[in-house]
Amino acid sequence: MQETDSQSQEQATATKAASAPAKSRTLWGDAFKRLRKNKLAVIGVCWIIIVVVVALTADLWAKPWLGSPTASDSTTMAETSLLAPCAEHPFGTDSLGRDILVRVIYGARVSLSVGIMATAISTVIGLVMGAWPVSMAASGIRSSCAVRTSSWRSRTCCSLLP
């Protein structure tokens, strides 16, 4: 009798689970879940966030703490040039006595802006190349002609790459 009761409870539980609406997963939710499982990806995202925050806030703290990345003092240049890393200059100094760490921080700004601009330019080029056949087809030009031309442009561009 107890077996029958436990079996009927299991069936009731299975029926409730089957009738309960399944959670819908979004594409972003699934991607975020997979990202959280990958420890190296999480470390990489954290490192990118740190670099971006340090580069964007450098004006607030880097100049007062480490000095200007471009200014050099000719009166103290002999004493401050080519110093080894220490507490005052964590990466040392260059031949003009400027702190290397502050120069790296300000250089990160340039690197980030170059990366963002390159991504933006390639996105615009890709959108134009991808939308061109669609706009030709919408304007009444034969679709296969637009697709062949687009395919030819893609093959030509890819053949120019090393």
How would you characterize this protein structure?
The protein is flat. Helix content is 72%, strand content 0%. It is an all-alpha fold. 7% of the residues are buried. It is built from 7 helices and no strands.
Give the mean pLDDT: 82
Count of discrete alpha- or pi-helical segments spanning 4 or more residues: 7
Structural class: mainly alpha
Strand content: under 5%
How are helices and strands ordered from N to C?
Answer: HHHHHHH
Shape: flat
Major pleated sheet? none
- Assembly type of the shown chains? single chain
Helix content: over 70%
Using only C-alpha atoms, the radius of gyration works out to 30 Å
Low-confidence parts: none
Total number of beta strands:
0
In a few lines, what is going on in this structure?
By secondary structure, the protein is an all-alpha fold.
